[in-house]
Amino acid sequence: MVGPDYKRPSGEIPPQFRAAMTPAAASSIADLKWFEVFEDEQLRDLIRTALAQNYDLRNAIARVDAARANLGITQADQYPNFGVGGGFTSIELSREGAFSIPNGNRRRDFGTVFLSLFTYEIDIWGRLRRATESAQAQLLASDWNRKTVITTLISDVATAYFNLLELDMELAIARNTLGNRQESLRLIRTQLQGGVGTLLDVRQGEQLVYGAAQSVPSSEQQIEQTENQISLLLGKNPGPVTRGRPLAEQQTPPEVPAGLPSSLLESRPDIQAAEQILVATNANIGVAKAAYFPAITLTGEFGYQSTALSNLFSGARRIWSFVPQLTQPIFTAGRIPSQVEFAEAQQRSALAQYQNAIQAAFRDVSDALIRYQKVREVRAQRELLVTALQDRKRLAYLRYRGGVDTMLNALNSDQDLFVAELSLAQARRDEMLSLVQLYKALGGGWQ
């Protein structure tokens, strides 16, 4: 066959992922199925529904079916095609025409039955086999793209779900803070009426109440919008989403193995899809180069023709034709060289995209690993900060009520605690999201 045979391009693969938490090992979290990574049963139900009903995934499956059908069409060109046919013809000739028939029978009736061999190309140079190779690679690329959609879909559902849990926690914090501040404001107003408080204290208390109050509808809005986002991913109309474990009870593994960098080429479906596109464009070079060489085609027909149906299949009524044909391009005004150049340029483009996909994958994993480590450290420090601010608030209000400190310090401690609690909720969400992103970056979820 003309054209280059495919060989996987060599590339520089690092011995270990940057920011890897443990020495490189064969095991990877990507080897786990998604329902082994996410332990929240409600999240598992949402993912199952999305995998069954999501429209993007349906579209990806349809593209795989189309690529499979295209492969069948391309493969059929390698084989001869046979057909059968028949017909009946009745002709009446003119007495005054080119052939004089003064007393003869001017009408002629005859029937035909035949087996035909449609035009069949002998694939000497491998043009049809290269075309089939390209179609096969395009089918595999479509299937790997489907798996990429699956991985992305699982990641999107998990991300939206953990965002929803974080918003639930924000709403609970805002409502709890609002209740405490309303109680403090009631006490301040009572003190003002008793002559031991000031109007400034009341205004500062009102400021904190209104600040917490506006957070409640804002969180409620984001919650409903996130629920609508999840419903869309599930292929459903907008509606409420059932929760499982609260965000504070979600568990993450203390360490996640990244696996060997070399295995990433097999784990990431987007890399596999890019390689199959490279295979297809490489085969197309052979298709284009085959146009330089002669094409040999065969056309044949065999059957019977007679004026009487009773003796249609007797030997004297047999008809047949066999037409071998050879065509060789001589002058094409540069069409064939341009087609070869076009195919080679597409192959170089696919090669660059394949190599870029590998480098992007290494970066994704390294970014996800460092994020997973640092977000956990941030969450631990914010937990300590919240604990300290809770004690500060308790002491500040004790000093205020004991008359040894101002209301301003108490209110400031309350505001600082509120902000820190919201930040802690976001850190817990970010910790879960970092696990989702690392799992996706390593190519997990499509198994």
Instruction: List the helices and strands in order.
Output: HHHEEHHHHEEHH
- Supply the CATH architecture of the largest domain: Up-down Bundle
Q: Determine the CATH superfamily of the largest domain.
A: Outer membrane efflux proteins (OEP)
For the residues shown, what is the average pLDDT? 87
> Cα distance, first to last residue?
36 Å
Summarize this entry quickly.
By secondary structure, the chain is an alpha+beta fold. Helix content is 60%, strand content 11%. It has helices at residues 34-37, 41-53, 55-76, 127-193, 199-233, 264-267, 269-289, 335-401, 407-441, and strands spanning 82-92, 107-122, 295-306, 318-327.
Topology, element by element:
Blueprint: H1 34-37, H2 41-53, H3 55-76, E1 82-92, E2 107-122, H4 127-193, H5 199-233, H6 264-267, H7 269-289, E3 295-306, E4 318-327, H8 335-401, H9 407-441
Antiparallel strand pairs: 1-2, 2-3, 3-4
Helix pairs in contact: 2-4, 3-4, 4-5, 4-7, 4-9, 5-9, 7-8, 8-9
